[in-house]
Design goal:
The longest helix has 4 residues, at 104-107. The protein is mainly beta. The chain is globular. It has one helix at 104-107; strands at 5-7, 16-17, 20-21, 27-30, 34-36, 48-50, 55-67, 70-79, 92-96, 100-102. The N and C termini lie far apart (38 Å).
């Protein structure tokens, strides 16, 4: 299991990632496959698995970690993928902000 080094700073609600500010309740696309975790830690427990291009809504930021000289906060997101009809829209969980990019329709509104 990979361990990330906790970093200091970037504690404001809007977090900078890949050259833009994350804005609560805005939609972002994943630039890589990733798991949504129930806690701010990489663990065998997962809430969901999302593929490249999946759309998520950014809800809040958590701890900042560093991996290979990249500082990134954990972010809590909601998947916009539909699961089963009786479950409504996807799952919520923690992932890394570094792999988010603003969704095209959100770029037009900024």
């Amino acid at each position: 299991m990979k361990l990330f080094k906790k970093s200091r700073g970037m504690s404001s609600p809007q977090q900078s990632t890949r050259g833009f500010e994350l804005i609560p309740n805005k939609k972002y696309r994943l630039t890589r496959q990733m798991y949504l975790f129930p806690k701010q830690e990489v663990s065998p427990q997962i809430n969901d698995y999302l593929t490249i291009g999946a759309v998520v809504t950014y809800l809040k930021s958590g701890e900042v970690v560093e991996d290979q000289n990249v500082r990134m906060p954990w972010v809590y997101v909601r998947s916009e993928m539909h699961k089963k009809a009786d479950m409504g829209k996807g799952q919520e969980g923690w992932c890394f902000s570094h792999y988010l990019q603003m969704a095209e329709d959100e770029e037009d509104r900024v």
